[in-house]
Amino acid sequence: MGVGAALAAQSSPVYIGPRVAVHLLNRIGFGPRPGQAAEILRAGLDRYIDEQLDPSPDAGLDTRLRPLTTLGTSLPDAVALYRSQDRNIGRFQDEALAAKVIRAVHGVNQLQEVLVDFWFNHFNVFLGDGFDRIFTPFYEREAIRPHVLGRFRDLLGATAAHPGMLYYLDNYLSTISRQDPRTGVLLTGLNENYGRELMELHTLGVDAGYSQDDVVNSALCFTGWTIDLRTSGQFVYRDQNHDQRAKTVFGLGLPAGGGRADGERLLDFLAAHPATSRRVSLRLLQRFVSDDPPAALVDRLAAVFTRTGGDLRAVMEAILGAPEFWAEAFGSGKPKTPVEFAVSAVRAVDGEVANARPVVAAIAAMGMPLYQCVPPTGYSNLGRDWVNPSSQLARINFGLDLAAGAVAGVRVDARAVVRSADGDPDDPASAADALSADLFGRGLSRATRDAAASVSRSGSVGVAARVAGLVLGGPEMQAR
Amino acid sequence: MSWDVSRRVFLRGAGLAAVGIGMAPSALLERTARAASLAGRTLVQVFLRGGCDGLNLCVPYADGQYPGLRGVIALPRAEVLDLDGYFGLNAALSPLKTLWDEGRLAFTHAVGSYGLSRSHFDAQDFMESGTPGDKATASGWLDRTVAAVPGSEVTQAVAFSAQLPRSFLGGEPVLVATDLASFDLHARGWRDEAERTLRAMYDARTDVIGTVGKETFAAMDLLLRNPQVLAAPTGGATYPAGAAGSGLRQAAALLKAGLGTRCIFVNVPGAFDTHSNQIAQNDTEFTRLGQALFAFARDLGGLLDSVTVMVTTEFGRTAYANGSAGTDHGSAHCMILLGGGVRGHRVHGRWPGLSKTELYQDRDLAVTTDFRDAFAEAARAALGVDPAGLFPGYSPGPGPGAVA
User: Fold this and answer.
1) Which residue of B50, B209, B325 is in closest CB contact with A479?
2) Which of A201, A386, A388 to mutate to test the interface with B (most CBs of B within 10 A)?
3) Could you say which of A134, B284, B301, B304 is the most buried, measured as most Cβ atoms within 10 Å of its Cβ?
4) Pairwise CB contact (< 8 Å): B193 & A466
5) Average pLDDT of the segment spanning A164-183
6) pLDDT tier for residue B25 given thresholds of 50, 70 and 90
7) CA B97 to CA B103: how far, in whole Å?
8) A252-254 and A247-249 as β-strands: parallel, antiparallel, unpaired?
9) DSSP per residue over B89-110, as a string?
10) Structure confidence at residue B172 (pLDDT)
11) Is B101 on the interface with A (CB under 8 A)?
């Protein structure tokens, strides 16, 4: 829908500035903190966008993460931890999960956190699986985070060679066929898992037209790409395990004796393939614009991807330059995934996360245990896939509890939130209007606003906590 | 997809309803629950995500090819419980042996479809939509099944799953939940006010978010009015941890509560995608699956006669082991059937054999029963549904004869 048409569809006066600012914060971040929409509007949305596209050091966040001491564990130490079945593995995982929530809630570089979440899903690994119990946080930190505003080829290459991915998709076990010394029978060493998902999920997409033979040959390219599981936990290339034959993958011819270059050249080829630009563009637009982005927009973005050689910062700029992105400010919005909802709720009431565990648990109860998507497809980017009664009730309850200060580990002062939005914390109507203006650009519907405003003035739970709780649990908060 | 409005009965008073998310936002419909006049059975589909290896579940251990094909992942004789002299049960599933001996349990081997693809995503999509090769199908096969239940005033479908399963996509109401026991509003000290206000907010909205809000409160009503839905298991049944145990435990309680539930889906996102270390991984998952199905049977007791369970997966795996003590994506899989109407104590289907020429593309167990025939047979036997309209573009054949 064009911006003009979207505006025309509004039936009541639209406060364009605040609505657009809220939209921006909802789309390239995890939602506004109290007062934030007005603040970025004053300073200029362009300036906010520039800051988000060039993340700077966040000392405040570093301070918050300091108590999570296992975050500083080295990879060899983590491997030793895993091997010894130390019960500190649990703490290691807890702190990785807590860090993700704390970063999303409190991090200044919101776009970076959104992109890390997006690309982790795209290159999904599963925290619950064997060595990935310890590899996963390293994987996110080392293979994903540094590249989210860099080049796609670098991101792809980093995931292909990281122990987290090598373990998850079993490539560390995949080797050239060997003759069994006892029987003389040739035993295959290959497994197709990574070879297939690299093409199906990470790059080309399942409809690109590659064959079963291409899957096998793709897997052969990565034989020898393995992990030193005994000590360092690092990637290691073992040439003696590599299939040195000439091979063709989806039209790419690789001569014999390629060694490690087989895999690298395949990654080059796949990263530059038009099907990859289209697929990546579609997925980014599903995250940032709409569950069903217009085909023309996908094409335009794919052209940017191709023209810039997979420059993800340029691609992000192109998304932010698209009228379709901004038109969404006036639509009904995209349903939030559980992590988007929970984090946006905590931010909306200026929650201070002292202990992230209950928030981590709540997100899991909503159907999205973080880092724990089992299949390599990763969590869906489509908002509509997350809408169901079970998740909905968990969200409503989380919102009600949060505003009342009843989510352990998160400090919330609903009265202060209402006051900071120029509302009267003892007057339901005033509180509802204030929250609607500050957090939604006056986007609460008449029905929501009136319902929230109708709560009694007295009760065991304060007016501000009840009104804020209802707004957090209400329909508008479920979309972004 | 057309609506037959005459079949919907509008209820006054009891207020039982649960509305699913479909392609078209649906109006809230209410139906009567007449448990006493329940005709036919309930169909329960347990879906194992990841491509469960049928050859490691119902094992052709007596076949001369088996040890060579499976190499390091061939099961030792001691880890196989003989079923019929040719097939054996993976010992990790030992509780199922009891049900087999009692004649309640059967398998259908070599089920699948060559149109399914070896991609998890596509294969699940094709199997759940019931249209292999076609990604544009708007509805799921269970949605069409539930819509076709003849002469029924109650068609309540439930999915134990974190998200709405593709099988139920469509206009039919379905309750999606993971934990019925915690299905109530918090807001201590102001619960009624909270409920009233939130209902008003969601009632005013007509889009997909409004619908889910209405559903949520409808589901809450249903559960609060029928607390027996949360009753503890009976018959000495002990369910294991995990999705199969949790889903089947709650399914049994729902069935015993007699609310007229006709179709239940239990989603099991376990580690069935055994590209490596298959024996150990299958041991873990099969142990839970076997315990869950056994507990379900004991929990239901005599009521098992009115429930037909089918356990399915999106594809089987390679007959050959790969280089990582595992298997890669294959074609034909093995279904488990349990309960009412099941011709137990048999391995159904037409066994294609394991020789090189009998394998599909030199790697997979060949498909000899199209999954649509097997699904249609179960749906007709359990629900009285006419198979003709269930799978667009396909007329189901007679089926493997596993369920009557």
Assistant:
1) B209
2) A388
3) A134
4) yes
5) 88
6) very low
7) 10
8) antiparallel
9) EEGGGHHHHHHHHTT-EEEEEE
10) 80
11) no
